[in-house]
């Protein structure tokens, strides 16, 4: 019987099974709480603060317009607001949405790069601190954003085609005659076209799913990282898809349950306090009553962000390590990097 594979860190240095990958990701979170949860909490805490500041600035800038619209709603009759009255509100909304989108992309890329950086140490059993991970993470963030954008754009082409086919089917069904058979045929063709075009998007997503790990582990640029991902996924497309989707499902369900529990826990005190507001409360009174609920909900959202942006990238990184162990015999290199003595060859016949 061959000796067990060496395990300097969170995984044994051998081709990994599903349990090894999921367990390794869990162990990484448990052993490296500071750089994993601490860094993710700092990044998304800063993101939440940024959104709060953007909303506060936007509301202060359109306070007069909001007051005018409120007065308009109180007037008798059904008067529609003029364009000049709602234009500042639309501009403020677009600016806040743009700040939120840009901030989210930066936050997700930073946390993803940090998780993969921590995983480099976790696989080898080396210590990792908040500061060391942060310093090694920041230089890889631009390349990781570029990789995500390129991958998204490539996968978006078949998605757009799928939507076009689906829309054609729906329009044809609604514009045709009253025959149920004709409408059904249009809908069927639209759904078939949707599926035919959507499948390549999934295939491309899996094909390039290991590119972020290549960006961090190998310090590759976006194009080369996508090429490396394509090489590593070849021949193992289905396992990569299955494990990646399972990790995303686990993170999503866990985050959703926590958010629901916190939301329910916060709504009851708010509803009890709301009963004492009276028939015509001021806006400030309503805000003060529901402020606790809003804070609890934001905490739930933050916890959800932490779970959904830490666990899947760790699983993705371990899939990358597994593929390199299988395809490139990376295990001896990792053992040497971890300072382990060379492993003796197995006896003949075992």
TrEMBL record:
<keyword id="KW-0812">Transmembrane</keyword>
<feature type="transmembrane region" description="Helical">
    <location>
        <begin position="237"/>
        <end position="258"/>
    </location>
</feature>
<protein>
    <recommendedName>
        <fullName>DUF7847 domain-containing protein</fullName>
    </recommendedName>
</protein>
<dbReference type="InterPro" id="IPR057169">
    <property type="entry name" value="DUF7847"/>
</dbReference>
<feature type="domain" description="DUF7847">
    <location>
        <begin position="63"/>
        <end position="311"/>
    </location>
</feature>
<keyword id="KW-0472">Membrane</keyword>
<feature type="transmembrane region" description="Helical">
    <location>
        <begin position="36"/>
        <end position="59"/>
    </location>
</feature>
<feature type="transmembrane region" description="Helical">
    <location>
        <begin position="186"/>
        <end position="217"/>
    </location>
</feature>
<feature type="transmembrane region" description="Helical">
    <location>
        <begin position="286"/>
        <end position="307"/>
    </location>
</feature>
<feature type="transmembrane region" description="Helical">
    <location>
        <begin position="89"/>
        <end position="119"/>
    </location>
</feature>
<feature type="transmembrane region" description="Helical">
    <location>
        <begin position="140"/>
        <end position="166"/>
    </location>
</feature>
<keyword id="KW-1133">Transmembrane helix</keyword>
<dbReference type="Pfam" id="PF25231">
    <property type="entry name" value="DUF7847"/>
</dbReference>
């Amino acid at each position: 019987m061959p000796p067990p594979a060496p395990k300097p860190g969170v995984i044994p240095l051998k081709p990994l099974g599903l349990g090894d990958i999921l367990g390794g990701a869990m162990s990484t979170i448990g052993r490296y709480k500071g750089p994993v949860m601490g860094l993710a909490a700092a990044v998304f805490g800063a993101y939440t603060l940024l959104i709060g500041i953007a909303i506060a600035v936007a509301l202060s800038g359109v306070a007069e317009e909001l007051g005018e619209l409120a007065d308009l709603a109180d007037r008798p009759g059904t008067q529609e607001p003029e364009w000049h009255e709602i234009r500042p509100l639309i501009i403020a909304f677009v600016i806040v949405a743009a700040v939120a989108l840009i901030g989210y992309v930066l936050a997700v890329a930073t946390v993803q790069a940090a998780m993969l950086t921590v995983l480099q140490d976790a696989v080898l059993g080396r210590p990792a601190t908040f500061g060391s991970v942060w310093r090694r993470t920041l230089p890889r963030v631009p390349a990781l954003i570029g990789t995500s954008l390129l991958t998204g754009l490539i996968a978006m082409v078949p998605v757009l085609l799928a939507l076009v086919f689906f829309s054609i089917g729906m329009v044809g069904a609604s514009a045709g005659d009253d025959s149920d058979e004709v409408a059904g045929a249009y809908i069927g063709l639209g759904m078939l076209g949707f599926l035919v075009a959507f499948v390549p998007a999934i295939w491309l997503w899996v094909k390039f799913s290991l590119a972020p790990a290549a960006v961090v582990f190998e310090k590759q640029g976006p194009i080369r990282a996508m090429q490396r991902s394509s090489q590593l996924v070849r021949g193992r497309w289905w396992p990569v898809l299955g494990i990646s989707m399972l990790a995303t499902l686990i993170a999503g369900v866990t985050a959703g349950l926590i958010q629901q529990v916190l939301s329910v826990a916060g709504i009851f005190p708010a509803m009890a306090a709301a009963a004492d507001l009276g028939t015509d409360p001021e806006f400030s009174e309503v805000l003060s009553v529901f402020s606790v609920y809003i804070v609890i909900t934001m905490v739930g959202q933050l916890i959800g962000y932490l779970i959904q942006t830490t666990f899947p990238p760790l699983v993705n990184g371990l899939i990358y390590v597994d593929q390199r162990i299988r395809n490139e015999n990376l295990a001896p290199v990792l053992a040497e990097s971890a300072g382990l003595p060379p492993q003796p060859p197995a006896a003949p016949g075992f």
